[in-house]
Write a structure and sequence with these properties.
There is one protein chain. By secondary structure, the protein is of the alpha/beta class. The protein folds into two domains: 2-91, GMP Synthetase, Chain A, domain 3 (2-Layer Sandwich); 99-363, P-loop containing nucleotide triphosphate hydrolases (Rossmann fold, 3-Layer(aba) Sandwich). Helix content is 35%, strand content 20%. It has twelve helices and 14 strands. It has helices spanning 2-6, 17-28, 62-77, 123-136, 153-156, 201-213, 233-241, 255-270, 301-308, 321-328, 333-336, 341-363, and strands at 13-14, 40-47, 50-57, 84-91, 108-115, 141-145, 177-179, 182-186, 220-226, 246-251, 275-280, 285-286, 293-294, 313-316. An eight-stranded mixed β-sheet has the order 7-8-6-9-5-10-11-14, sandwiched between helices. A four-stranded mixed β-sheet has the order 1-2-3-4, covered by helices on one side. Helix 2 (17-28) packs across helix 3 and helix 6 packs parallel to helix 7. The longest helix has 23 residues, at 341-363. The protein is globular, with a radius of gyration of 22 Å. The termini are far apart.
């Protein structure tokens, strides 16, 4: 393991016993902020005066690696034999037990559905930025645009109009389109931009199943599915056909949006898909001129429904002009303004999603069977 990361020539010698004891003590006192556990030591050697460590966590956490490393560096550098410390991180992301059973998705470890009860709450913008945030944390990530009627993921990822996916050598699968470090698939890649999808429910469900079963993803840790708004055919198809690991519900503080978000949570509960948490979009507007903060659409609604339904409030995102402009221009916030407060919120939410999935992976879940009864 260690030689694979650092190279055989630079593997070094095992740490002296006293130095290893110092490292063990520092690790024992270290806890990550989400799982409250110490990083696992995969390897530790001394190359000259440089201590080389390989550490791992069960979720991608590049954004907090620096703060976790700091006490370890301090402890090791206190030893006269150490002049520098090099640390490599491994993200040991567990595979959900069921995605491999769906044709074309054997290379997907975890599937996350991002949904909203109604349109206009910024769900697709949130999906793209969360996917980019998870990738920035160190994971391999893809996005599936399940909004057959109004696909928008391609535009938000800056994919040129008219782009078509390649096919596999045997011509049985689409190869995902890559942009901004993400793999993506969308109905927009298969039709002309101005072609309306005037389809009935069964045709839409069939199109989604084709995207699901005929896309050859490449080694994904997480696949985000951007759901259309509502609780109709697409949602039922996803629940019946796809082993979703967990879901995220996006809402705004507006009362009508919260009512629809509750329906979304109830839907996932009925089909036994864990709700990982709620993201409240457009939570507060901060005036760009004077800095005054105003809750235009209400306040505290996301926290209220998260508490009511026993799930987590993953984060609150501001009503910000730049988030909308960047997404529309194919340059999402996390990709183009990585140090902004909004980008950091997206990355915090991504880490919460990743850690929330860990228990779900351990439990495993079967694809639910849904009975539809006509009145």
């Amino acid at each position: 393991m260690f030689e694979k990361l650092f190279g055989k020539k630079n593997a070094g010698e095992p740490l002296p016993a006293t130095l290893q004891a110092t490292l063990d003590k520092a690790l024992a006192q270290l806890k990550d902020p989400y799982l409250q556990q110490a990083p696992a030591q995969e390897a530790a050697t001394l190359q000259g005066n440089t201590a080389q460590l390989v550490l791992s966590l069960p979720y991608p956490a590049a954004g907090i690696a620096g703060q976790l490393e700091a006490p370890l560096r301090e402890a090791l550098l206190a030893d006269s034999a150490v002049e520098a410390v090099d640390i490599e991180w491994i993200w040991q992301i567990a595979r959900n037990s069921t995605p491999r059973n769906l044709p074309g998705m054997a290379e997907v470890k975890n599937i996350i559905a991002v949904a909203s009860g109604k349109g206009g709450v910024g769900k697709s913008t949130t999906t793209v930025n969360l996917a980019l945030a998870m990738a920035a944390e160190g994971a391999r990530v893809g996005v599936l645009d399940a909004d057959i009627y109004g696909p928008s993921i391609g535009q938000m990822l800056g994919v040129a109009s008219g782009t078509r996916p390649d096919s596999s050598d045997d011509e049985q699968y689409f190869i995902p389109v890559e942009s901004l470090g993400l793999q993506s698939m969308s109905m927009a890649y298969l039709i002309d931009d101005n072609t309306p999808m005037v389809w009935r429910g069964p045709m839409v469900s069939g199109a989604l199943q084709q995207l699901l079963t005929q896309t050859k993803w490449d080694g994904l840790d997480y696949l985000f599915i951007d759901m259309p708004p509502g609780t109709g055919d697409i949602q039922l198809t996803l629940s019946q056909k796809v082993p979703v690991t967990g879901s995220v519900v996006v809402t705004t503080p507006q009362d009508i949006a919260l009512l629809d978000a509750i329906k979304g949570i109830e839907m996932f509960n009925k089909v036994d898909i864990p709700v990982l948490g709620v993201v409240e979009n457009m939570s507060v507007h901060i005036c760009s001129n004077c800095g005054h903060a105003e809750h235009i659409f209400g306040e505290g609604g996301g926290e209220k429904i998260a508490s009511q339904y026993g799930t987590r409030m993953l984060g609150n995102l501001p009503l910000a002009l730049e988030i909308r402009q960047q997404a529309d221009a194919g340059q999402p916030t996390v990709a183009t303004d990585a140090d902004s407060s909004s980008a950091l919120i997206y990355r915090e939410i991504a880490r919460q999603i990743a850690t929330g999935l860990i228990g779900k992976n351990e439990q495993g879940s079967a694809i639910p069977s849904i009975s539809i009864v006509d009145d």
